[in-house]
Structures are given as C-alpha cells and as structure tokens.
Specification:
Largest sheet: 3 strands, antiparallel
Strand content: 15-25%
Order of helices and strands: HEEHHE
Number of domains: 1
Number of strands: 3
Distance between the termini: 47 Å
C-alpha cells in the first residue's frame, strides 16, 4: 500500500499542507503584530483594520500571593476560591500587591468573504 502512487501523492499533499499551515500561521502572526502597532500609533483610538480587530484585555498579576490571601480573607472571602472574583476586585481597587495591565491583541475575522 505504501508504495502505491496514491499513497505517495497523499504523503506529498500532507507535507505541503503542513508547510502551508506553518506559512499561514507565520503570516497571521505578522498581520496581528502590524495591526497592533498601527493601533498603538493612534493611541488605540483606531481598532479596526479590514478583517482585523484590536481588542483590549486586562491582565491581573498577583505580585505577592501571601498578601493577596490575607486581603481576600479579610475583605472578600469568595475571592479565596474564585479567581475571577479576585480579578474583578483587583481591577477596581488599587491593591499594592497586584499589577493590573492592559494588553491589546489582534483578532482576524474567520469569515473573510465580506471584507472590503
């Protein structure tokens, strides 16, 4: 079976498909990076570039885990078990043991048929 022309054609097509996917992934990465940079140049006022949208995400990083647990136990016990509750509280309060940063990421539309 492995020596048939059909099997060899399949292997060739599979190898080409893998290379095409890798190339598409690299191009997508470059497009996203360029879109974020263009948006950054406008102060993130402009967030749509054809099929690419720039979205804002808020990242919460706990700088001191012990302080975070002590604070949660005293002020918001539900935060001890629910990470999302803690992140929500941390975003609105300026806690010294938490870093809150904005990150902008590009997303490419899945349906490119309607793009101008």
């Amino acid at each position: 079976m492995q020596e048939t022309p059909e099997y060899q054609a399949y292997l060739d097509a599979h190898a080409k498909l893998s290379m095409d996917r890798a190339e598409a992934d690299e191009l997508e990465k470059v497009i996203k990076e360029e879109a974020v940079e263009l948006s950054r140049q406008t102060g993130f006022e402009e967030r749509k570039f054809g099929a690419v949208n720039i979205k804002e995400f808020t990242l919460v990083k706990i700088l001191d885990q012990k302080q975070a647990v002590v604070w949660a136990a005293a002020n918001a016990p539900s935060c001890l078990t629910l990470t999302k509750d803690f992140e929500k509280a941390a975003k609105s309060l300026e806690l010294p043991f938490v870093s809150v940063e904005k990150e902008y990421r590009a997303q490419i539309a899945t349906d490119l048929s309607q793009v101008e």
